[in-house]
């Protein structure tokens, strides 16, 4: 998306819903991170399929499919892909919406109870 298009979209959203520039920028940044993850996922799938099929073609046998080293690239790259996914989606999986606020209130209540005891 070009800068002029982003600015036009921001103006439209700002006029309709009163969204601030910072809110728009954070949402834009998040969408870019999600898009990068899905691009990474697509490349991962196609490259690993190519590597596996190429190994079968080179050996002229499907016997390599039962060997672990055939999947080593997919395994180790998969670890990186999971880390990438957790960096994009993980905060919401583990900490969810409003987690910080709930924890702050919990500790404030705990401190208040301990103060009066």
Structure description:
By secondary structure, the chain is an all-alpha fold. Helix content is 81%, strand content 0%. It is flat, with a radius of gyration of 24 Å. The mean pLDDT is 83.
Jot down its keywords:
117 residues, mainly alpha, 4 helices, flat
Summarize the structure.
This protein has 117 residues and is mainly alpha-helical. The protein is 81% helix and 0% strand. The protein has helices at 3-17, 21-59, 72-94, 99-116.
Helix and strand pattern: HHHH
Shape: flat
Percentage of residues in helical conformation = over 70%
Unreliable segments (pLDDT under 50, ≥5 consecutive)? none
Beta-strand segment tally: 0
Average of the residue pLDDT scores: 83
Major β-sheet annotation: none
- What is the beta-strand fraction? under 5%
Question: What Rg is obtained from the alpha carbons, in whole angstroms?
Answer: 24 Å
Q: How widely separated are the two ends?
A: 59 Å
Q: Number of helical segments?
A: 4
């Amino acid at each position: 998306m070009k800068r002029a298009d982003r600015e036009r979209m921001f103006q439209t959203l700002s006029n309709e819903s009163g969204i601030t520039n910072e809110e728009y920028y954070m949402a834009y940044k998040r969408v870019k991170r999600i898009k990068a993850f899905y691009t990474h996922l697509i490349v991962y799938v196609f490259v690993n399929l190519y590597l596996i099929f190429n190994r079968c073609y080179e050996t002229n046998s499907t016997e390599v499919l039962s060997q672990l080293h055939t999947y080593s690239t997919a395994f180790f790259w998969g670890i990186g892909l999971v880390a990438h996914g957790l960096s994009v989606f993980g905060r919401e999986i583990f900490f969810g919406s409003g987690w910080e606020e709930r924890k702050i209130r919990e500790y404030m209540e705990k401190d208040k109870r301990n103060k009066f005891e």
